[in-house]
Design a protein that fits this description.
Number of strands: 13
CATH architecture of the largest domain: 3-Layer(aba) Sandwich
Bound molecules: uridine-5'-diphosphate
Strand content: 15-25%
Largest sheet: 7 strands, parallel
Number of helices: 9
CATH class of the largest domain: Alpha Beta
Radius of gyration: 19 Å
Distance between the termini: 48 Å
Strand order of the largest sheet: 3-2-1-4-5-6-11
CATH superfamily of the largest domain: NAD(P)-binding Rossmann-like Domain
Structural class: alpha/beta
Amino acid sequence: MERVRAVVTGGAGFLGSHLCDRLLAEGMEVVCIDNLLTGSLANVEHLFGVDGFTFEKYDVTNYIHVPGEVDFVLHFASPASPIDYLELPIETLKVGSLGTHKALGLAKAKGARFLLASTSEVYGDPLTHPQPESYWGNVNPVGPRGVYDEAKRFSEAMTMAYQRFHGVSTRIVRIFNTFGPRMRPRDGRVVPAFISQVLAGEPLTVFGDGSQTRSFCYVDDEIEGIVRVLFSEIGDPVNIGNPAEMTVLQFAETIRRLVGNHVPIEFRPLPVDDPKVRQPDITLARTRLGWEPRVPLEEGLRRTIGYFRERRARQA
Ligand code: UDP
């Protein structure tokens, strides 16, 4: 019997690489495509030589040529941290628009199912709390975050058009803040930022007064949710994230306590359009997929701190 074959764009990124691991573990062949703009070969080097895994360094905003049959196309390519998309605004817009178009075109040509990695950023700075999938969002299209938010909103619209007009089987996952091993220590996101700072004995940079909230999901839970959406019959977007919400200041205190290093807190200006609250309403995933996060925040953070410690030790 032919093996099921999946293409993962952005497969050398944080989530993409965990997804490659998982799909290989499911017995699939995996074609990992990444231009390594923000992804890293280090995230997938353990997969080189693994039966069924291939890697291609390629920019998916251009025509994607994959010989042979393909069953799934999972589109995970995109800069995904605020400082990345502020530094790479055009690339972010291109991969969300042109890249999504090419990845959908590949799925259509191969008769494959397509899954889009979307984001809680489609809700912008939300006026509804928590955010259900039915909420349309509050996004500033011309602000600095607009390049990511609007690219992802466009990619959702494009995905739905391919579903409705071309009959492509499509899935959309709205991913909320996720953390775990393989995040870049300096990608600017709050989890790697705080862990790296505490490990280095540097002050914690809290933006604004730290009263803004986020809800953090451990990567293993996120991947399980994504795979369930992939295999589900839900063609509309599904939120996958952890509803356990806390302020950024509470989060800073948690990291200090877990690492056991009481570094000072340094308050910095709040970035433009930084959402004041964020918490997924996961009723849909709970009821239709029987999914909910299982890894408690502190357990996930301990594993992530362990990863960052090892990384520092290797580089020392
Ligand atoms: N943040 C912070 N200090 C940092 C990095 C981020 O206080 O060094 C804040 C940021 O302003 C936001 C929250 O932490 O309110 C989460 O930021 P992140 O960049 O992880 O992602 P976002 O959820 O904003 O997309």
